[in-house]
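Quick entry between incubations.
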Amino acid sequence: MANITKKVSWSSRADDSAAAAAAAAAAEETPLLNGSEQRRFSRQHSGRGSLCQIGRLSTVELEEEITEDEEPHRGQTREIPHNEKLLSLKYEGLDYDNIENQLFLEEERRMSHMGFRCLEISRWVVCGLIGVLTGLIACFIDIAVEKLAGFKYGVIKRNIENFTETGGLSISLILWGGFNAAVVMLGSIIVAVFEPIAGGSGIPQIKCYLNGVKIPRVVRLKTLVVKVVGVICSVVGGLAVGKEGPMIHSGAVVAAGVSQGRSTSLKRDFKMFEYFRRDTEKRDFVSAGAAAGVSAAFGAPVGGVLFSLEEGASFWNQMLTWRIFFASMISTFTLNFFLSVYHENPGDLSNPGLINFGRFESESLEYNFYEIPLFIAMGAIGGLLGALFNFLNYWLTIFRIRYIHRPCLQVMEAMLVAAVTATVSFTMIYFSTDCQPLVPESNEEYPLQLFCSDGEYNAMASAFFNTPERSVRSLFHSQPGSYNPLTLGLFTLTYFFLACWTYGLAVSAGVFIPSLLIGAAWGRLCGIMLASISSSSLWADPGKYALIGAAAQLGGIVRMTLSLTVIMVEATGNVTYGLPIMLVLMTAKIVGDFFIEGLYDIHIKLQSVPFLHWEAPATSHWLTARELMSSPVTCLNRIEKVGTIVDTLSNTSTNHNGFPVVVQVHGNDEPGKLCGLILRSQLIVLLKHKVFVELARSRLTQRKLQLKDFRDAYPRFPPIQSIHVSQDERECMMDLTEFMNPTPYTVPQDTSLPRVFKLFRALGLRHLVVVDEENRVVGLVTRKDLARYHMGKHGLEELQLAQT
Amino acid sequence: MANITKKVSWSSRADDSAAAAAAAAAAEETPLLNGSEQRRFSRQHSGRGSLCQIGRLSTVELEEEITEDEEPHRGQTREIPHNEKLLSLKYEGLDYDNIENQLFLEEERRMSHMGFRCLEISRWVVCGLIGVLTGLIACFIDIAVEKLAGFKYGVIKRNIENFTETGGLSISLILWGGFNAAVVMLGSIIVAVFEPIAGGSGIPQIKCYLNGVKIPRVVRLKTLVVKVVGVICSVVGGLAVGKEGPMIHSGAVVAAGVSQGRSTSLKRDFKMFEYFRRDTEKRDFVSAGAAAGVSAAFGAPVGGVLFSLEEGASFWNQMLTWRIFFASMISTFTLNFFLSVYHENPGDLSNPGLINFGRFESESLEYNFYEIPLFIAMGAIGGLLGALFNFLNYWLTIFRIRYIHRPCLQVMEAMLVAAVTATVSFTMIYFSTDCQPLVPESNEEYPLQLFCSDGEYNAMASAFFNTPERSVRSLFHSQPGSYNPLTLGLFTLTYFFLACWTYGLAVSAGVFIPSLLIGAAWGRLCGIMLASISSSSLWADPGKYALIGAAAQLGGIVRMTLSLTVIMVEATGNVTYGLPIMLVLMTAKIVGDFFIEGLYDIHIKLQSVPFLHWEAPATSHWLTARELMSSPVTCLNRIEKVGTIVDTLSNTSTNHNGFPVVVQVHGNDEPGKLCGLILRSQLIVLLKHKVFVELARSRLTQRKLQLKDFRDAYPRFPPIQSIHVSQDERECMMDLTEFMNPTPYTVPQDTSLPRVFKLFRALGLRHLVVVDEENRVVGLVTRKDLARYHMGKHGLEELQLAQT
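Done. Structure below.
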């Protein structure tokens, strides 16, 4: 099973070997309450020299890992594994906390006031660039999709019109299905074969990144290219997908690239923005990029800022928020400007965003006090339907994890879905008898006459034979009576299952637009039904109910909250709907959460990512740092033997990333007093540059190691195996004083879990040292130790750690 | 001078005696760099028993304090004191960090999952109540102002019309001026005499509260009543003020009141929401209340949330943000609903907010690419004018601090301003020759004909003879040509100085609307001038430029940023203007900040409030906790003699509020090892209930002290002087173990200022203990120690601490 999971997981490819190597760690069940006694006992026995630890006791292996050799295929025949009860050890945290070592402090102290101001200006420049590039990418996607989809629908429309009279419509179906499958195949191949991380909407991955988890390869240039080409293929291929979700991922990649002033993939270093080459700054820029992506996708700059803050901000920083807002604004503006030039109406900047809900004029769409209960009821329906969607998709995803893990199977599934989508659409259109008069002011792009009389068009086709964005707009703004209820009902039903099947395929695709479309369809249906049972003119416009339904369905599926409200409000361009949309989204969230989590959270959980929520579980006050922490801890001395360091780093059974630096006091059998914290990546750089005490003495003229050396190595630090250390060098000593963080945050052992959690989350920590009353190191709390505890149905539950 | 400052400061009244008693503290200049050596030296000499400290060395007294006896009146003849270079010691911090002592943990551990859920639901209920009550207050203010202003303008209009023909218009002037002065006198008396804290807009005070500073009496019921009545009087009295700023303060008071489930002023305890009786919860609710206030004032729920977050959030909490948003929505909705009922159009919910900018239809007001430089230029003008406004107001405020500090003088000044405002308005109207035809669709409320011919009205009167809100709307939406340029220019000039003079009077009044009005006037002027030099139809609508000018002026004065953009966008009801408004506000901020700070920040600085900004000064990395901290620290033993505690608390020279609890190890001459932290308020409650070890033994049956006892005493803990401790009891011992916070946050001495700052700010701390490598207490960092360092014009500056 572990193997299967690896195949489809976000971080599957390059890390297989490392994961396999790490798979031999000591395993022991951790008792929840009396664990501390056991640990203390074992600590006394494991002390040996300055390196006082081997195993990570709070690690629980998958059963399968142990028995794998005997029964390699057993996993496939057993019941579906509950991956969401596991927490993967392969994800690392980001170092959001600045490492304030001597080098850093010296640099900061050398910098003048002017220097800080220049730095601040360059941050703004970077954010501007992020905005412009994100806007351009959005523009490119939009134009490409429009051109290609226009070409496709044009060809098929002509073909259908030809064969409607002669009676060979099955050829049209084959043409349609074949075209879709071919385009989707292209999109699926690049995702499945070249860059699996570019699959899906990318929002779960960006959520994790902003949460502080390093998802491998998620912000690389290759991912961006695959994402952009992939999403164009998916939308043109007629899948039930949107192009909005991937924009968020694209913006994040742009931000991570631009802010570093170099491309590791292209091996170009522009020698710019070197100061920003660390996790702290990069994560801040990525949050700006994600916001710019939202902003370009929905024309919602404020919504974008809120999205980034909701997902990423551990601590509200005024200047950062401004910069995020600036990037968002610039991105909408760029998209807007270039689209207006493309549409030959240059300078008209009033139509922001990839998806344009169209303008809701307040006169026609006022709502009244007594409609609010109706809205709430629709929110509840959205919550229920959303929960059903998520439930189906959850089981489908588990099925995919188990059986559809080879790239060729993934491509075939995607093609199958494309062909089925085309067939179902065609069938629905073929059997539909809903003919509507073709009025000149109608905004039908590709009206299909089919079997309707002259001057009429097939209403089912205007929902199916169109890009999803246009269908949404048509449902919002078409005249009352444009759709008959049966058409809407059938459309909702089929599109619901198609969208559910589509999400999670190995294609680059978002779930926002399909959700909106499903919701708009049943919302409009509700509106029509209300109008038919009541004679008041107030119910006359079904477009209002389509909007509410869309909000309810989207809220029921993704469960984003404040940012979603603002995105919806900004996309409709009308502030009046704030309260109803908020009520609907809240109802949908409450109802949906009662059954199952949001779609993104489900996918994050299925990847076993150590995701930290906003607050510690409510009933966790009885847990203290003593129970939480990993103990004993691998500590290093302030002046440490090179051999010991190399051995520590090479120890695949622990694979720690942070090491407390201690001063030994009373001999070897007691833990040392904390005096600093050093990271694996720092040690790697030190070893690479051979910063040994003995060498420093002999080569006095050699330049001192600088912060620049660490920045040059960032972010792809070489593995320890690639660094050659000779037997002589192993006997040298390394002085860590200058490089360690001399003031790591610490907590006493009695600190409660919520208190530890708050400190950890608020400061975006990666390691938190637990000390006793004498300031001796007794444990280390990392992200995984905190993410392990979560609120289950029966109170507090503990997830198991696994090497998958 | 100290006395003078006290008279007009926010916390002047009840605390005079305490401040005077505390005025004898030891004074010593603190050297910035080598202070630690001196401190260490003095610490060794001051150690006596377990209580190892007397003075607070980093306290600098005002010179005047020392020489006051000799020259009591000297302060009035010396040059103006630079209060903004001082930091007052009289403001206390809020305890935002939970005190996780044994009592608290026991309670939390006893609580079931269901208990937490109920708590969460009651938080939502409280937020709903806050929203409803805030909306009702806004509604009350709106209707009262409309009724009274309608009455006033009706009477004066009739009077003017009568005397226009007969020629006794000076009587009209006297009537107008007299009416205004009388109403303003009422409003000023209640503020100056009964509750000075209710003066002004209240936004600076709420900013400080949300920042974590306890401003005395700012959230009391009496303050609310005075604020509401005061603002009605100010607006009806025709001052150049708005009723929007005070709504934010009102919302905050409502929140603080409702969330506590009792009123200390009315001596009613509803036995509800007892769990919320601590600073953490109360501050969260107050942020919801402030948001509800913004929301009701501007019809901007999202802007309200952002305002609260910008000012208050130390840490983005998802659920809290949702609740804030809920309160905001409910408040707009309530206001909306009741106003729609009042206007006899029940159920029309599309007109939110006290100030209603009117709907900007996008067709008439599209902007084009090449207008953006114009907008930026207008932003720069706004920044300049805003800086001038702030500069004038700054000197005026210092003048007021020095000379106008007695209530009767304050009332007289307010009356003078009211009379002058009426006179100036009347003169302007009288000499204006700008007559406009009275068309039926014009929205003039009180058109004054005066010397115009029949069927025309005086355009100057439509700006002056109106409530400011209506004038703003008229400037935004009147037909092109409704105002001639001279009228607008004169109006801008006079209103600018009137508004500047008015802000800071002892009346309850906001500065938002006057700023918008000034900006709208010169913005419209810009629009007209642009239209006259260009023939394009694009420039035809001056309303667009009025909007941009209003944003620029407001941004130049108050310098709020993200939230202000969103408030403006929401108030215009049109998302299209997001980018221009943002650019304008940013330009205004950058230009304005070059000269002087924002108006609210000026007033906060003049009150010497220890306000913590978002980030530590950039060039402060060379300062460490060792230099920052107050040292030596008054520590208590885990089991301490009652007499020692009483003496410590009674020591008016230190007046500390938090005491590290230590365990002595190697005798008395070394600082003890940290084992907890206890607050003055906790000790007071313990003393009041006589929780002594000896008594506990003798009265075994007596009930244990519970968290409820602390909550009942919150927030007005009695002073130590009111607690009687007999000589026998002084010999008893107190066991603090159960009550102290056993896991206070600590930092090592070498931690840099930015790192300390980040920890302090992110977690909303009040005390941060500095320990050495052995976990011994060596210092204590409080809010004042951090707020002392700020960026001045010549790099890092250090403010002086003063008892004022």
